[in-house]
């Protein structure tokens, strides 16, 4: 592209050369005879060195009085400096200010501590901070790794609709949209039912898009708008889901470790915890999980679903993600294939991340028998008519099939070691947060 | 992955071996002593050859009576056959039916012609047909190429919110969502305003997600839900947008030509038209475009926007996409940077695809001056308060910046040579279509 400036990320290629950088003032240290503007340009950061003795007085004074986040082009000579974070510094020769942030109306986010509401109100600016920038880069990496994993393993991306006429699981947590002429549609909570149709056409598919849940919960793990990747495979069983899910998580972790070390360091992430994420992951049954929980003092009864606290307790037992399989059918959705030996169990599997990050993957094998699926739809009092197209998949060439869903934000929170999921997406949407 | 069957796409690796394929019966030719089941498995199609003389009678009869779209595993020996589409055939040794579609309730989509409403009502099955499958594969390729292009050129993916409090362009075409406790939010029409904030943090960014337009139009170019990719660059101008847009289209076309020849053949696409898509693209001004249109008999007046017919007329002049730049400010949104020499012009550019596919890219340079942007917000009677965060981007380190948006479905329609955009997405949403 025709840009006269050099990106900080490419600085090593210009060692010893005079280049122009274009960015924003991140920080400034100064004394009477020297000042050190730190420039960020979205590709990286670099410390510039401006010596009063080497510069026209006006240039030095301009640099010295630069305010935080002013936009500036700085020209200077690239010098290797092993003590610098990026390995280079820039010896300033000249500078050009594009827009100077006035002293009387300074950049609102200062190095001092700010409350979370203030930061979220200024999310459009907060993204520029070193920590939020690092999270954004890890998110990019997680998404790219996820897509590459499926693309490289023979999956076809088939986008599922956002506007859906029927609910996948329940209706109380659906967002309703006014369509045309009094029609109502709902925002998708999962592409799975459509994925099943797509898998019968393309064999192995995935969808990857935003999903929506109108949950009135204010936990650190919930957003009303979040991104989910959902693969689905024809001619596949619960075992294939476990293998695929484990492979995906290992691949993502390796990519993040390989390409985002610097960002993980900014986030003070204990990378040894990520390096430990190698297959095979421990696999336990729901029965065993209940035993472990009771041994650890939980009052959970067989037949209940796990809550966030149970997941955290369970995860304490393992340094790696743990796959919990074969849940009581009553805690799983209507479409789960029952276990052949113990039909009261559903062939579902959840992956629980270590370090208290909870369930990051949920999936399993779907019912492929027409009569059984119809029976389940009736048992769950679902409107048969709305599911006729879904039943068609069992009328015309039904095969065993299976898949899962992974929430991107939870995965990013885990990779980054974040307390709260709200920092994993640029503009989080929560119960009381729809701006900016 | 632990699958005992071989994918048809991998058949060349098994030449001479006995393998099991798992798929669906696409078609069947038969005579008394031989039958040719064509199997599809989502990765490809292959013709199987079953000789009565070589098989147990039951196996031959089973194959001969297979119904369309029945699910079946066929075991046989792979044999190179240069006359076959994929280069191989399978000499059948045995078969196992998973689910036989009953003769009395046959697969609804037969080789005969069906009306579009019937096909759209059966979209979950229609996707299995050769033509829809090919379109799905091209769509996958276009999206992968698009993402690779940005990822490989230093862009960071930053997802923009779907729930937005304010409108980017007008409010009449917005879908309204009931949020919690009487709050209203709107579904995004563009991530651009957010992209501008993100570009100030990450330098070069793109968002890629579904966007929504509540337009009551029933044209062959409109969907209410469609996917859009939108790059945005800090320290960039109109020229950078033209370069980036041209590079993207060339890259996508090359990838489609390199990897999807077979699918283009199924679609009977004239690939010479795609092979002609090489840079540099012709670049004309709005003024020149008006001249061309008037010469061709259009009644267009200087100052009006182009309609679909104008775009088609204009495209007739060029075998390649044409970039039209510098539109009258009044036909463009409030945020366009004015031309320095002729301030009545906006620094916007549209790319019009050849062969009547219309505008596939629209973008330009944004206003970076605080006072000018404020003036435009007032001139357009937009609520200043809702744009305070957007104005912040001009208060704190404003720089020239630019970007564009490309609708994925229009691009796929063009690559595939489709009449109507509705076939470019798995589950199109239109004025009268929200199912399945």
Tell me what you see in this structure.
2 copies of one chain form a homodimer. With 436 residues, chain A is an alpha+beta fold. Chain A has 2 domains: 4-99, Nucleic acid-binding proteins (OB fold (Dihydrolipoamide Acetyltransferase, E2P)); 124-424, BirA Bifunctional Protein, domain 2. Chain A has helices at 57-64, 116-121, 123-126, 130-152, 192-202, 238-259, 261-266, 271-275, 286-295, 308-315, 370-379, 388-395, 408-416; strands spanning 18-30, 34-40, 45-51, 71-80, 88-99, 156-157, 163-164, 176-178, 184-187, 204-212, 225-234, 283-285, 322-328, 345-353, 358-366, 401-407. In chain A, the strands form 3 sheets. The first copy, chain A, has an 8-stranded mixed beta sheet with strand order 6-10-11-16-15-14-13-12. Chain A has a 5-stranded mixed barrel with strand order 1-2-3-5-4. In chain A, helix 4 packs across helix 6 (238-259) and helix 4 packs across helix 13. The first copy, chain A, is elongated, with a radius of gyration of 26 Å. The interface between A and B is large, with 103 and 103 residues.
Please estimate the helix content of chain A: 25-40%
- Distinct helical segment count of chain A: 13
Strand order of the largest sheet of chain A: 6-10-11-16-15-14-13-12
Describe the main β-sheet of chain A briefly: 8 strands, mixed
Q: Examine the secondary-structure arrangement and name the CATH architecture of the largest domain in chain A.
A: 2-Layer Sandwich
Per CATH, the class of the largest domain in chain A reads: Alpha Beta
Low-confidence stretches of chain A: none
Kindly report the greatest chain-chain contact and the residue count on each side. Answer: A-B, 103 and 103 residues
Count up the domains of chain A. 2
Distance between the termini of chain A: 31 Å
What radius of gyration of chain A results from the CA coordinates?
26 Å
Oligomer designation = homodimer
CATH topology of the largest domain in chain A: BirA Bifunctional Protein, domain 2
Number of strands of chain A: 16
At the fourth CATH level, what is the homologous superfamily of the largest domain in chain A?
Bira Bifunctional Protein, Domain 2
Query: What portion of the residues of chain A fall into strands of 2 or more residues?
Result: 25-35%
C-alpha geometry of chain A: elongated
